[in-house]
Specification:
five-stranded parallel sheet, five-stranded mixed sheet, 19 helices, about 50% helix
Length: about 475
């Protein structure tokens, strides 16, 4: 009772190893994963071959196909010696072979692996590249089911089993979340056979190829130009190394605090200006702060980047049960409600339950935004005015109290109360106060800059202009839509 799993090579019977040939010659029973392989007609004669092509024809789900194959091969192995032959190598893109190894071991059935030439070696020959230059090898079917490719773009990649236009289309969509639409790639057809073809075309066109068959693979060269997250981590680690930069080496979590805030505001400024080129640059600067903090933590033995990513990945999946679970939601508002409930439950489970409903709101937020968040959170439990007219009345009341204040401390307190209730009024009007004030600041900047330009053209300093003259310039700026 022995199970032999052997590789038939990429296609040409001459690539079949002598060991595999002898195993087939002396086999009592041979199961072929598929007859659709160029070397099958040339295999040793006088042997009974069974194929699983009919299983593929009757089942739509690959997992079910592999389960059926494993069950039939194991049943045959329990009755006597069996050979299971697969295209290429048994351990390259062969899910059923992997399952057979695991289940045969559990069943106490001895297994021998006879390696074969996989699709990788003839693909390398067709491309003229070295696999040790960082080549990444993935299953095209796996990539097709994803939304972002699990690839380091600084290195080349080879995707096997791109066997249909449908698979190629889904692979393309996944890859285009990282690579440009017109990125030059190569489809490899029938590598390892006399009919091998290397088809060069842009990424967006791969699913239009007329040559795609069951022996098609896709090659992506390196995107290059230092485009990977891993390269960025290497640069930051180098800066922090003994031979790195003195300034970067002396930084701590505390010393970097101001830069984290500054870079976050630079990102906001790029968003406000709708400058996407600047946004890409500023997001990089913000990412620098995150990676630098993480490198410091790594050196101090606090945590690794893998911990940061693992934490946020798990959190995203855990807090989106309507995407990765069976929860149903009726719009974005319910998503937010569920998020907050899950967040509170997580804290309770970790023994960190909030004492207040407001505790989960970061106190370091900008003051206007913090006021808005506090009020919105309180309103969720009905601590809110019943009518907007009541809010307006409160605004007038707070204005009177500011005017009635008799000293600086009292005026400061009352002005704070006025600003707080103005934020509440904005919330009732569905106006985001932080953004409203930012927009007003930018409007003031544009109009005051116009005034400065008009003053410069007059040849007189601004202090020589009357308020009426400056107001006239302001009105002109308004008239021009500034």
């Amino acid at each position: 009772m022995t199970l032999t799993i052997l590789g038939l090579g990429p296609g040409d019977v001459n690539d079949l190893t002598r060991k595999a040939w002898r195993a087939l010659e002396t086999a009592k029973t041979v199961y072929l994963r598929t007859n659709q392989h160029p070397c099958v007609p040339h295999l040793p004669q006088g042997v009974v071959y069974h194929s699983f092509d009919s299983v593929y024809d009757t089942m739509d789900d690959f997992a079910a196909v592999y389960t059926a194959i494993v069950e039939r091969v194991l049943a045959a192995a329990r009755a006597g010696d069996v050979v299971y032959a697969v295209p290429g190598d048994p351990l390259v893109g062969e899910s059923a072979a992997k399952q057979l190894l695991e289940k045969a071991k559990a069943a106490g059935i001895p297994v021998e692996i006879i390696s074969g030439v996989s699709f990788i070696e003839p693909a390398l020959a067709l491309l003229g590249i070295d696999a040790l230059d960082g080549l990444q090898v993935l299953d095209g079917i796996t990539v097709a089911a994803m939304h972002h490719p699990p690839l380091n773009p600084d290195y080349p990649a080879l995707l096997g089993q791109v066997y249909s236009r449908d698979v190629a289309s889904n692979v393309k969509l996944t890859l285009m979340n990282q690579y440009p639409d017109d990125f030059p790639v190569t489809l490899l057809h029938a590598a390892g056979t006399p009919d091998a073809v290397a088809e060069h075309l842009p990424l967006h066109a791969i699913d239009h190829s007329e040559h795609i068959r069951h022996m098609t693979a896709l090659y992506l060269p390196a995107l290059g130009e230092m485009a990977s997250f891993e390269q960025f981590q290497e640069i930051i680690a180098h800066l922090r190394a003994p031979e790195g930069c003195p300034w970067d080496r002396k930084q701590t979590h505390g010393s970097l605090r101001q830069y984290l805030l500054e870079e976050a505001y630079e990102v906001l400024d790029a968003i406000d200006r709708e400058d996407t080129a600047a946004l890409a640059e500023e997001l990089g600067d913000l990412l620098l702060q995150i990676v630098l903090h993480t490198q410091i933590a790594t050196e101090d033995g606090e945590f690794y980047m893998a911990d940061v990513l693992r934490h946020i990945n798990q959190k995203m999946i855990r807090r989106h049960p309507h995407v990765w679970g069976d929860v149903n939601v009726n719009g974005a508002e319910q998503v937010v409600t569920n998020w907050e409930a899950l967040k509170r439950q997580e804290k309770a489970d970790n023994g960190k339950a909030d004492e207040s409903l407001l505790d989960s709101i970061p106190k370091g937020l900008p003051a206007l935004l913090l006021a808005h968040q506090y009020q919105a959170r309180a309103a969720k439990v009905n601590f809110d005015w019943e009518r907007v007219e009541d809010v307006i009345a409160k605004v007038r009341e707070e204005m009177d109290e500011v005017q009635a204040a008799v000293d600086d401390a009292h005026r400061t307190e009352e002005m704070g109360d006025l600003l707080f209730v103005l934020v509440n009024w904005a919330r009732w009007l569905k106006v985001e106060p932080e953004m409203a004030l930012r927009d007003a600041n930018m409007k003031f900047y544009r109009r005051f800059r116009f005034i400065e330009q008009q003053v410069a053209q007059s040849g007189r300093p601004m202090t020589d202009h009357s308020l009426a003259e400056l107001d006239a310039f302001w009105d002109a700026a308004k008239a021009e839509g500034l």
